[in-house]
Amino acid sequence: MHLIEVNDAATKKEFLEVSARLNQHNPAYIRPLDNEVEAVFDPEKNKQFKYGTAKRWIAETDDGEVVGRIAAFTSSKYINKGTDFPTGGIGFFDCINDQATANLLFDTAKQWLQEQGMEAMDGPINYGDRDKWWGLMVEGFDKEPMYGMSFNPDYYESLFTGYGFQNYYNQYYYSMKVDDPLPPRFPERHAKFKGKPGYEAKHVKLSELEKYAGDFATVYNAAWAQHGENKEITKEQVIKLFKTMKPIMDERVVWFAYYKDEPIAMFINIPDINQYFKHFNGKFGILQKLHLLWMKYTGVCKRLTGLAFGVVPKYQALGIDSFLIYECGLLIQNKGWYFEYEMGWAGDWNPKMLNIYKSLGGSQSRRMVTFRYLFDQNKAFERHPEMEYK
């Protein structure tokens, strides 16, 4: 058994293919788009390379069979609250059910991270934003993964813990049926705000995305930029994001709340594009794009996923979230457009968001784990601290 650094076309192809082979027997598996995985490791496409570096390997038997892969990365922007030592990341881990092979992959990543000055490694995580490929799935294997969601065989957890990784935090997903009635307090709070002058909730118009990009930035920066590693986002960045999303965006499920025309809350949802991508086997050329447009036009996707939710602090705890969500429900429920709604993950360190998910009537659908491994095993391990609210 030996590891080979991924640095040419042949090893890049093997890096992509080994994941598909190891997951091929699970009918729920959906292969990520090859070009999106490759973009993570392209300095021209991934801004994280401004702040760090990355390396990846495949594991090959003496007979030439590729049986695993792993990536390791560093970023000065990767700072978790409560962590006072440099921490690197590992991700895109796949491996046969063999602890020795897994250990070789982990050891190689560890050695390289130590050479970069790291004292711990978290994983599996993404070399980029937390909305993609973050955490190891430990519950929820019976459902197709949502777009960007990590998906792996169930034995991976034992490979991580067998090496010595510890649970740094849990990531919980919640889901519900789109047509499930919302709890009674939702219509009550909706009625309260509906009767107050100045309050309004409305969904976006695809023809006015630049205007709503500014509203998104306003709410996001007030509600989230103060927490952890989140930094302020610019209107220009959101415009770029919205333009990328526009081909699959459904304006009926992207909502903002306003008070006297000032944005105070947002409820951003999109169709789960994995319901399209599962037909493409990792490819996304012109034929796949035409196929996607046809599926969107014919309403193939019946699953919604939550992308972002936030309320400007001064309006939190007033019930504006219920007002906004109920307005969305009045439009989309009982229309047959969508059947299932699954919300993006919330860490166990964010009980406020978990309570919001529960308040909708959602039930836990999956659990992921972000693990941590301390290189100095004599150092005390501490789990991710709970979020502080202002």
Automatic annotation (TrEMBL):
Under the heading InterPro entries, the entry gives: Acyl_CoA_acyltransferase, BcerS-like
Q: Which residues form a coiled coil?
A: none
- Name the PANTHER family for this protein: PROTEIN YGHO
The name on file for this protein is: N-acetyltransferase
